[in-house]
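Hi all, posting the design record for the shared folder.

TITLE: backbone redesign
STEP: 1 of 1
STRUCTURE INPUT:
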């Protein structure tokens, strides 16, 4: 009989890639939609896990818009902290493994450099605080659970990140701008699926960090790397310039963002997982996105 996976958030940027990969690997997928299992309702979440007969439960669902979370902190707390804790508790009853996605935004982002898995946390926003609360509650409810921090998820052209959006704008010949003073590392959604569904993941618990390898990059540098790859692939006639923007002046960001949250993935490396360099990650993301960016789509 095929192993059963219960996946929350299967319509999201990482969740939809996870769902496709799980089906391709022969998992029997149970993927309740937002409407079928609204995470604001703790008892519905517990029931979904308790009745699922799943061997593995993955939570890729969250409310992740920083401004939306600030407008409704209770909602952010229910979805990002209470619901994951309910999943963890229910997994303790059923014996299922539990993997939860978290974020680099929980980290103290004041100083440059790569942050280890046990680095200090200091959430700056309601969103980040709710995600950190989720991490802590899961650790208490189910110490065997795996919390996977990711950052700047990209690589799902149907749910474009700033990397695919920059590419799309460049192909349309539109002006380009990107924040040049916020540093992290991208996470390819395909790497999330590859690592979470790998048998070695079952040997891990606690917090791991999953992102590309290398030194911290600004969003601006990521955009430039994406455009260079598009040029190399012949999709652009010349390298367009990208206007550098300041985080503090970004008109669309009202909530504070941490500046330096690039993560070390040392624990995943020690467990035998390979992660691409940021340049390799972005190049792969661009090559996968380009075929869908036909004139019809741009
Ligand atoms: N995106 C990033 O760059 C990034 C960076 C760092 C960390 N993360 C973390 O990574 C994880 C996955 O992020 P993502 O970008 O893949 O997610 P996403 O694209 O924002 O998708 C979120 C998913 O959660 C579902 N959802 C939202 N509210 C819900 C609710 N109240 N009840 C039930 N389902 C609900 C959504 O369903 P509907 O679409 O139907 O509402 C969707 O399937 C999250 O934990 C996020 O905090 C993301």
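Okay, here is what came back for every position:
SEQUENCE:
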């Amino acid at each position: 009989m095929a192993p059963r996976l219960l996946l929350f958030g299967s319509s999201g940027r990482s969740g939809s890639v996870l769902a496709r990969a799980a089906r391709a690997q022969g998992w029997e997928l149970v993927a309740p939609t937002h409407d079928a299992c609204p995470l604001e309702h703790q008892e519905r979440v517990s029931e979904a896990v308790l009745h699922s007969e799943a061997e593995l439960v993955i939570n890729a669902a969250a409310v992740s818009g920083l401004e939306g979370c600030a407008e409704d902190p209770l909602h952010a707390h229910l979805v990002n902290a209470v619901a994951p804790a309910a999943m963890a508790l229910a997994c303790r009853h059923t014996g299922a493994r539990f993997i939860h996605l978290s974020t680099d935004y929980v980290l103290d982002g004041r100083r440059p450099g790569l942050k280890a898995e046990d680095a200090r946390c200091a959430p700056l926003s309601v969103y980040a605080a709710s995600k950190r609360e989720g991490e802590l509650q899961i650790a208490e409810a189910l110490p065997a659970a795996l919390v996977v921090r990711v950052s700047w998820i990209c690589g799902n052209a149907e749910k474009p990140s700033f990397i695919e959006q920059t590419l799309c704008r460049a192909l349309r010949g539109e002006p380009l701008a990107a924040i040049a003073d916020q540093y992290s590392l991208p996470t390819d959604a395909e790497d999330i699926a590859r690592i979470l569904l790998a048998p070695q993941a079952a040997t891990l618990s606690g917090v791991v960090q999953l992102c590309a390898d290398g030194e911290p990059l600004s969003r601006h540098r990521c955009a430039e790397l994406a455009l260079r790859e598009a040029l190399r692939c012949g999709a652009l006639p010349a390298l367009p310039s990208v206007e550098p923007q300041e985080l503090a002046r970004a008109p669309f960001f009202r909530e504070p963002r941490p500046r330096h949250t690039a993560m070390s993935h040392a624990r995943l490396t020690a467990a035998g997982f390979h992660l691409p360099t940021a340049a390799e990650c972005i190049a792969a993301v661009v090559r996968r996105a380009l075929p869908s960016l036909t004139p019809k789509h741009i």
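COMMENT: Residues 9, 11-15, 34, 38-40, 60-64, 79, 101, 103-104, 131, 150-153, 159 surround NAP (CB under 6 Å).
Let me know if anyone wants the other runs.
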